[in-house]
């Protein structure tokens, strides 16, 4: 009987979540479509685009470098600890390179960009929404999608592609250095192992992830920012929701990549 | 001419319940009413910032809500909107904020010199010194200055309609009177059609050709300031009497102040 009573509530809750996800997905689909239309019609300011590219890419670089150095070191140390005495150590070169390029580089860079850029975009646009600056744009005959959303969404992809490329390189170099310092694996042996199992496709796979994350992060953050209602509290609420949605979206997308692109 | 025809809007609860009236070209209409009666919502429907659930708004005979994107942009360019908290763009300085009120691509079409001339003229019209404020960011301005910059941005494109959303809210009485005077000056000089949403009864009666009172999402009163003062409607009386009470209190306060001044001993 208890189950009978609970079931409709559970079904309602699942339905509610489904409806919310569908509503947000629809909103983001329209936003992406309008951004594409603005790009094709040449209505996106190059100055705004390059400004956003600088803010997302160049200004995120120091934090991305720190994260990638640490991820390379940790992967190398753990691999060295596990392989010493059991597996030839040159395999460490392959493990570090594959882990960094296929997984850690794109995902950790995405997490850094979510925290540094995604949250900022939602808070910035949310504040503009609750302080009527978005209404002011409309009243002045401007389209906020063209003026605010499109430059941010379009800058996300090249910024992430560049950041992930740099992160991969730095992560592998840090891992190589750590391997020498911790388990005494020489650079030449590390690189021999890395080359032995390396596929050129891995690089494109990594950059495809970067492209996907670079689309998702600003798309979600802009969408959530423009939906903000209810003053300072509303800005806080939508920023938190935005960060949660971005992390979930990136991890779900990351989980979908191997079955779709690694077979 | 702006015509509101049977406008309905609800956000969970009804806010506007069939509002109909017309604002003639060149007229200044003040909209008064208790908080939460849909004054600002009605103002935002004028240029399609809020879409009503039913009814329509017509500007010079053209429906705002039947307009396509280009037509809506044209309608919006006819109007200047002064927001309650000015809604200046935080990342832009005063010059950029005011210049943003010009049509898109104005810098290319008009040239920097002409854009600067128009921005400076607009700032002077709202009694701001361009040499002082031009490069300041909104965060560096006082509340009164922000309102004036918002007004300068609204008038720089020489609109045919000006919409004011609580232009004196949050201002001290001196600045409030100054802003009211600006609204009157601009209306007299440019013959612009103005709608002013306000809580300031005294200001509304002094600046407007007609006054309306919204209550419970419906139009309760529409008439001249004199008709408003003489109205027997209890709610109108409450607004008018409150204003009279405020005026009496202010007069009393001024008298007490003068008496206190007279009694204050001169310090050595």
Describe this entry's structure for a reader.
The complex is a heterodimer of chains A (263) and B (268). Chain A is mostly helical and 263 residues long. Chain A contains nine helices and no strands. Chain A has helices at residues 2-40, 46-56, 61-83, 91-130, 133-139, 144-183, 187-196, 200-226, 231-261. In chain A, α6 packs across α8 (200-226). In chain B, 45% of the residues lie in helices and 22% in strands. Chain B is built from eleven helices and ten strands. Chain B has helices at residues 39-45, 69-78, 94-99, 106-110, 112-125, 130-133, 143-155, 173-190, 201-207, 225-230, 234-263, and strands at 2-11, 13-23, 28-32, 54-59, 62-63, 79-82, 161-165, 193-197, 210-215, 218-223. In chain B, the strands form two sheets. Chain B has a six-stranded mixed β-sheet with strand order 6-7-8-3-9-10, sandwiched between helices. In chain B, strands 2-1-4-5 form a four-stranded antiparallel β-sheet, with helices on one face. The longest helix of chain B has 30 residues, at 234-263. The radius of gyration of chain B is 20 Å and the shape is globular. Chains A and B meet through α5 of A and α2 and β6 of B.
Q: What is the secondary structure topology, with strand pairs?
A:
The complex is a heterodimer of chains A (263) and B (268).
Chain A: H1 2-40, H2 46-56, H3 61-83, H4 91-130, H5 133-139, H6 144-183, H7 187-196, H8 200-226, H9 231-261
Chain B: E1 2-11, E2 13-23, E3 28-32, H1 39-45, E4 54-59, E5 62-63, H2 69-78, E6 79-82, H3 94-99, H4 106-110, H5 112-125, H6 130-133, H7 143-155, E7 161-165, H8 173-190, E8 193-197, H9 201-207, E9 210-215, E10 218-223, H10 225-230, H11 234-263
Parallel strand pairs in B: 3-8, 3-9, 6-7, 7-8
Antiparallel strand pairs in B: 1-2, 1-4, 4-5, 9-10
């Amino acid at each position: 009987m208890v189950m009978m009573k609970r079931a409709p509530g559970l079904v309602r809750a699942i339905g509610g979540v489904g409806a919310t996800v569908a509503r947000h997905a629809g909103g983001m689909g329209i936003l992406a479509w309008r951004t594409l239309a603005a790009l094709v019609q040449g209505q996106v300011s190059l100055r705004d685009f390059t400004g956003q590219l600088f803010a997302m890419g160049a200004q995120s670089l120091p934090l991305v470098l720190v994260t990638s150095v640490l991820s390379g070191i940790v992967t190398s140390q753990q691999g060295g600890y596990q392989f010493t005495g059991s597996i030839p150590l040159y395999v460490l070169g392959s493990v570090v390179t594959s882990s960094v390029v296929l997984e850690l580089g794109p995902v950790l860079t995405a997490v850094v960009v979510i925290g540094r850029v995604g949250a900022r975009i939602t808070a910035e646009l949310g504040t503009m929404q609750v302080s009527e600056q978005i209404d002011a744009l409309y009243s002045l005959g401007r389209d906020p999608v063209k003026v605010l959303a499109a430059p941010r969404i379009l800058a996300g992809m090249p910024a992430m592609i560049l950041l992930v490329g740099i992160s991969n390189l730095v992560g592998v170099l840090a891992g190589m250095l750590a391997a020498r310092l911790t388990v005494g694996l020489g650079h030449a042996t590390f690189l021999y192992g890395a080359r032995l199992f390396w596929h050129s496709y891995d690089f494109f796979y990594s950059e495809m992830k970067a492209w996907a994350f670079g689309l998702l992060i600003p798309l979600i953050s802009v969408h959530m920012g423009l939906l903000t209602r209810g003053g300072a509290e509303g800005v806080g609420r939508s920023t938190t929701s935005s960060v949660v949605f971005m992390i979930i979206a990136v991890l779900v997308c990351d989980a979908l990549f191997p079955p779709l692109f690694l077979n | 001419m702006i015509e509101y025809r049977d406008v309905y809007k609800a956000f969970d609860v009804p806010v506007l319940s069939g509002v109909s009236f017309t604002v003639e070209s060149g007229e200044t209409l003040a909209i008064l009413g208790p908080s939460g009666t849909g004054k600002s919502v009605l103002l935002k429907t004028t240029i399609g910032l809020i879409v009503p659930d039913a009814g329509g708004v017509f500007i010079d005979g053209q429906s705002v809500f039947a307009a396509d994107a280009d037509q809506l942009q044209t309608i919006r360019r006819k109007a200047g909107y002064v927001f309650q908290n000015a809604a200046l763009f935080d990342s832009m300085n005063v010059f950029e904020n005011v210049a943003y009120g010009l049509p898109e691509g104005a810098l290319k079409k008009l040239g920097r010199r002409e854009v600067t001339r128009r921005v400076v003229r607009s700032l002077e019209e709202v009694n701001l010194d361009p040499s002082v404020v031009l490069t300041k960011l909104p965060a560096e301005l006082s509340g009164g200055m922000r309102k004036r910059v918002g007004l300068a941005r609204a008038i720089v494109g020489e609109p045919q309609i000006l919409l004011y959303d609580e232009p004196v809210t949050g201002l001290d009485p001196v600045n409030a009177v100054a802003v009211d005077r600006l609204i009157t000056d601009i209306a007299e000089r440019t013959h612009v059609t103005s709608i002013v949403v306000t809580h300031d009864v005294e200001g509304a009666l002094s600046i407007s050709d007609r006054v309306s009172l919204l209550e419970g999402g419906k139009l309760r009163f529409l008439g001249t300031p004199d008709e408003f003062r003489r109205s027997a409607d209890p709610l109108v009386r409450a607004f008018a009497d409150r204003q009279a009470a405020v005026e009496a209190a202010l007069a009393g306060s001024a008298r007490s102040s003068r008496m206190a001044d007279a009694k204050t001993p001169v310090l050595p």
